From TrEMBL:
Necessary cofactors: Zn(2+)
Superkingdom: Bacteria
Entry GO CC: membrane
InterPro entries hit by this protein: PDZ (IPR001478), PDZ_6 (IPR041489), PDZ_sf (IPR036034), Pept_M50_Zn (IPR004387), Peptidase_M50 (IPR008915)
Gene3D superfamilies recorded: 2.30.42.10
Membrane topology: Single-pass membrane protein; Multi-pass membrane protein
Record keyword Metal-binding present: yes
Compartment list: Cell membrane; Membrane
The organism's taxonomic lineage, starting at the top: Bacteria, Bacillati, Bacillota, Bacilli, Bacillales
Name this protein carries in UniProt: Zinc metalloprotease
GO biological process: proteolysis
Keyword tags: Hydrolase, Membrane, Metal-binding, Metalloprotease, Protease, Transmembrane, Transmembrane helix, Zinc
Homology family: Belongs to the peptidase M50B family.
Domain PDZ: 185-256
Length: 426
């Protein structure tokens, strides 16, 4: 159990860290201020600050986030009705908004906030205690919140997500899923370099299957299946699929001679989702693996695309099942379901766990691109709207839609988690 817990934390932490780092990587290159980068949710366990970003590890290993200034997802620390203290510079601009008592500032002013705008016009307006009159103070170019004894920079207008160009916004949002796809490629590339890549030469023949029945042997090299030439192992799979299970010929070279055999591929159905199956045809061999410099790169790319195709088909099938009435929460896995899968896979060895992590990373990337407002895909839709119509979507409408999407996602996560608990533990 301890190994499963450690593996779950590592796998989940890796996927979330890479995803959120993708967002932050492109955000910072677009000049967007990122106040916090968090792994996990809930109370902070560890934290450290580097430059303007606070890096935190939180108690619950079920997610993470990167806070971006002006992304519409964070609550402003200053709201109308609050009593705050401010420090001004010689131009009567606010340099510090003081929200606690853990400070050593002198010559500060008490203010009852009436109006505040920290996105567009950058000001705080309120009743000053020293004369009980209403004043409007502009935020200085470099200003800070003072909270819990720490200085947190207030993002200037030009460093906020909302004021960036559509392309910069798109890249920042798309980067999370993109980094998940890159992670999958890197993991599969590492496995390919470690294990080698499959060739067209037979290493093992499965007992009782077609290859054994027609007399294929270890060391035979497959050159042709049906009317399709075989130059690499991927060609074997595509050629078998092209037969559609019909009797066909296979040509192999053995000791420098070409041998032709007739066989019927064996049909297998692989569950892509609860109501969707993928048909495969097998010869019944395991390929010999070889180490090279270039082949692992091609192999890792092909496998990443293959994972993406299967997962995309599964997601489309799941969405379609909502309209056909065949939808079931068994099609989805939350943190509990992922933990159970980790428990199953980790028992088969580290190699399988790495391959499964790559598939899960692709899955996370695709799921985050769904056009649901709280997810990256939904927010990208608002950016595309801005790019097409040359103006941003209504800010209030966007905030309400994203909030509604977040509530929807949270409800789905709760239902999926409860379903996973019932399915695996009750």
């Amino acid at each position: 159990m301890l190994i499963t817990i450690i593996a779950f934390i590592i796998v989940f932490g890796l996927l979330v860290t890479v995803h959120e780092y993708g967002h932050m990587f492109f955000a910072k290159r677009a000049g967007i201020m990122c106040p916090e980068f968090a792994i996990g949710m809930g109370p902070k366990i560890l934290s450290f600050r580097k430059d303007e970003t606070l890096y935190t590890i939180r108690l619950l290993p079920v997610g993470g986030y990167v806070r971006m200034a002006g992304d519409g997802l964070e609550d402003a620390p200053v709201q109308p009705g609050m009593h705050i203290r401010i420090k001004l510079n010689d131009q009567d601009e606010i340099t510090h908004v003081i929200l606690d008592d853990q400070h050593k500032f002198q010559q500060i002013e008490a203010l009852e906030v009436k109006k505040v705008d920290l996105e567009e016009d950058m000001y705080i307006e309120g009743i000053a205690a020293y004369d009980e009159l209403r004043h409007r103070y502009t935020i200085a170019e470099k200003a800070f919140y003072v909270e819990h004894g720490s200085l947190i920079q207030i993002a200037p207008r030009d460093r906020q997500f909302t004021h960036k160009k559509p392309l910069q916004k798109f890249l920042t949002l798309f980067a999370g899923p993109l980094f998940n796809f890159i992670l999958a490629f890197v993991l599969l590339l590492g496995l390919a370099y470690y294990q080698g890549t499959p060739t067209t030469t037979i290493d093992q023949v499965a007992e009782g299957m077609a290859a054994e029945q027609i007399g294929l042997k270890k060391g035979d090299t497959i050159t042709e299946i049906g009317d399709k030439k075989v130059n690499r192992f991927r060609d074997v799979q595509s050629a078998l699929k092209a037969t559609d299970g019909q009797e066909t010929e296979v040509k192999v070279t053995r000791n420098g001679k070409t041998i032709t055999k007739t066989f019927k591929p064996e049909k297998y159905e692989v569950a892509v989702s609860k109501n969707k199956k993928h048909t495969e045809f097998k010869l019944g061999i395991l390929p010999k693996k070889e180490h090279s410099l270039v082949d692992p790169i091609i192999y890792a790319g092909e496998e990443t695309l293959r994972y993406g195709k299967y997962i995309f088909v599964a997601v489309v099938s799941m969405i379609g099942s909502i309209f056909t009435g065949d939808f079931s929460f068994d099609m989805l896995n939350g943190p509990v379901g992922i933990y159970k899968n980790v428990d199953t896979v980790v028992k088969t060895g580290i190699i399988n766990l790495i391959g499964w992590t790559a598939a899960l990373s692709v899955n996370l990337g695709i799921m985050n691109l769904l056009p649901i407002p709280a997810l990256d895909g939904g927010r990208i839709l608002f950016v595309l709207y801005e790019a097409i119509f040359r103006k941003p979507a209504n800010k209030k409408a966007e905030t309400v839609i994203i909030a509604a999407g977040a509530v929807f996602v949270m409800i789905i996560m709760i239902l999926v988690t409860w379903n996973d608990i019932q399915r695996y533990f009750l």
